[in-house]
Amino acid sequence: MRTKFLLLSLMALLPATAFAQDATSKGVTVANAWARATPGGATVGAVFLEIRTDKATSDRLTGIASPAAGRTEIHSSSMEGGVMKMRRLETIDLKPGTALVLKPMGDHIMLFDLKQPLKDGDTVDLTLNFEKAGAIAVKAGVAGIAAMGPKGAQTNSQGKKDSMSHEGMSHDQMHGDMHH
């Protein structure tokens, strides 16, 4: 009973997201999927989410597909000598009992050849393919262009909007300045 109360108490502290949708298959859960809105004419977008495994499950993310884009890729971002570098990842290994968070300025999903701009309030369908868990389909809620998290999670503990130096830049501009 105490554990249930503690879990409910912790859940009450989590920010509510407008598009929160968890999907689980064979010990792998995909949660908190979101994308940034793109300016009109942009052909590239980014999606962020969390992948959790239960303590008895290891797996491998082998690919991602979306009807919103002509092509999807998993990318890793890192700072090297003051320059943001990105590289494509073919797969991501998932260890038992861990959470992998794909987030801005870190690992993320790239959507290339967008069929239409991603607009704040829309959703993007995604299918993540895992070696053991198979296909897991989720919907990513689209947040503002400068968002650093899903809707409802864009403020820090002081209630102020989080900001970074690239705020206001389009995803195309950010990736145009990065070396692959």
TrEMBL record:
Q: Where is the composition biased (Basic and acidic residues)?
A: 159-180
- The scientific name of the source species is Hyphomicrobium denitrificans (strain ATCC 51888 / DSM 1869 / NCIMB 11706 / TK 0415)
Q: Which residues form the signal peptide?
A: 1-20
Classification via SUPFAM superfamilies: DR1885-like metal-binding protein (SSF110087)
Write out the ranges of the annotated region (Disordered).
Answer: 149-180
**What's in the keyword line of the UniProt record?**
Signal
Q: Does the keyword Cell membrane apply?
A: no
Q: Is Cell cycle among this UniProt entry's keywords? A: no
Q: What is this protein called?
A: Copper chaperone PCu(A)C
- Please give the superkingdom of this protein's source: Bacteria
* Pfam hit, one: PCuAC
